[in-house]
Request: fold
Amino acid sequence: MLDEKILSILRNNTDSYVSGEELCKTAGISRAAIWKHIEKLRGEGYDIEALPHLGYRLVGIPDSLIASEIKWKLKTKVIGKNIMSYKKVDSTNDVVYDLAENGIGEGAVAVSEEQTKGKGRHGRQWLSPPHGGVYFSCVLRPEIAPTEIAKITLLAAVAVARSIRDVTGASAMIKWPNDILVNDKKVCGILTEMKAEQDAVDFVVVGIGINVNTPLKYLPKGASSLIAEIGGRAGEEKLSRIEVVRNVLEKLEEEYLKLKKHGFKPIIEDWKHFSAMIGSRVKVTLPNRTFEGLVHNLDSSGELVIRRDTGVLEKISSGDVVIVKN
Amino acid sequence: MLDEKILSILRNNTDSYVSGEELCKTAGISRAAIWKHIEKLRGEGYDIEALPHLGYRLVGIPDSLIASEIKWKLKTKVIGKNIMSYKKVDSTNDVVYDLAENGIGEGAVAVSEEQTKGKGRHGRQWLSPPHGGVYFSCVLRPEIAPTEIAKITLLAAVAVARSIRDVTGASAMIKWPNDILVNDKKVCGILTEMKAEQDAVDFVVVGIGINVNTPLKYLPKGASSLIAEIGGRAGEEKLSRIEVVRNVLEKLEEEYLKLKKHGFKPIIEDWKHFSAMIGSRVKVTLPNRTFEGLVHNLDSSGELVIRRDTGVLEKISSGDVVIVKN
Reply:
């Protein structure tokens, strides 16, 4: 708490020095104690300048996903008010799922620098190297039926696409149902999991992995990072990962409130706007068959409507859909 | 293991005595060791007669939900091959859900004499007193979409109705979606929970609570027990709870294999056959409205089709439906 108080004073005065005396008074502790807290913050990666007669000044914050950094200036009411940050976990989805089963409130977030068992759809792996990616999961407790779960994935996709556009200026697009592309390359995956009874969702965990500054050598083929796609060189230039996470949480809350207030319709419209698929020729792989067609629309329940070459419309709620280059 | 071996020999010879010598030979241990095992089994509630010069004879098995008793003669390939039995748990669904999250295989079952936090639909309580009920849950790992979860509840309802008819002869009926009635009184509830991603179920936990011998004073209004409904007096007469559990597990496997082999259609037909609702006048309570109508059908996805007085057909996948007496 005292660390955060001192940090907060320094944050509010980054263009001047805060005297030791002033820090003592505001924090209500001795000079020696102030010094100890400053050293602790430096240990966490905060760059704090200390000049005789002038005092202290915050000149740099660490490139770590520290909960208090994400919460700093986070403009949300629910999502991210409770953040747990980790150096390494199996899977942030699993961490949050367990917490949710034990009753943790809506909006709780776990964020990690690395996942050793990052999960993609259908038990696939989501590579989560500790080199500049962000991996986080959030619990939601919407009053919906399990049949409506697709809405939450699509909502999260809209939030992330919006956020990447906001932070980087890149034209992020959505590939149904759960990938975000920049320049046709995958930079983000979303995995939605739920606990539900027959007709009522207990909770949903939305997991989001974004390759922010990740060097391409750590990523699978077809994937890229935000920094690479906006023309930077990973390892030398960096986007603020804190800002990315904070911005996504804010957009997620915006879209979630939109769903609660206006239903799913405005989200579908946004989704279509960001879709990398509508009008594209795709190949659909279902468990028992494959076919090609043109993506015609996204229907009101979040199913992808595909017009086959025979003219028949098919609705797809699962399966793999890849864009076929002409 | 030795207990089970000795028990198995005695079980195969309930109309004669097995000499100590024979037991020693078959089990491969000494007379003194046999005696110790017999005493242990007696401690668990087995009634074993021991006569000089004649030997041992099994004359009674305990009225406890011992895993090895349920497994004895259980005619299933998957469901119940792995049974864990408890004196008391919070909720057998929670026990099995946790095991399933940690990877336990399909068909694992937890059974308990009592639940301190027995669960009904929508967070309601399911009273589970330690007085003659059976409470058990089973994990299934069907390859279905979460939208198909209703099928599993309906399948379980068919299995339980069939089983109660088989064991007691009573005309068990199904009240949509998850109750089993005998003489219009609730004797069993089913709670289906799942973990799923957007388009694939990870696992389903089917929880079943049956008031077998439970005295009515322990049950809520409108509920009854199997023994009471077939004219017995709970506390004095008893149905074999072991037999009830074993039979339900067998019927559950039969219906589950039917689903895998022939799809949902034969299960719907069976469901209709056992339905206490089709043709009945009902009152439907949804989160935002209520209405009355006649139950017209169960559709191919497990939704209840109700004809309102205006003639309009409505499909119901959730909500509370109660039969209105004319």
Summary: The radius of gyration of chain B is 22 Å. Residues 241-262 of chain B form the longest helix (22 residues).
